[in-house]
Amino acid sequence: MVKTIKKAVLKYAEIQNHSFCNAGCLMCPYSCTSKMFPMGKMKNKLFQKIVAQLAKDFPTLRNISIMLQNEPLLDKNIYEKILFTAKKRDQFKRKFTISTTTNGVCLTKKLLLLLEKSGLDILNISLTPTNNKNKNLSPGINFSKIVEKIKKLPKLKKLKVCLRMVITNQNFDDIIFFVNSKTIKKLQAKNNLKIELSALTNRAGTLKNYSNLNLKFSNLVSPINLKNKVCFEPFHKISILFNGDVLICCHDWKRENILGNVKNQTIKIIWNNSKFKLVRKLLLNNNYLMLIPCKKCSIAKYFLSNKKIK
Ligand code: SF4
Question: Its Gene Ontology molecular function terms (predicted)?
Answer without folding.
Answer: catalytic activity; iron-sulfur cluster binding; metal ion binding
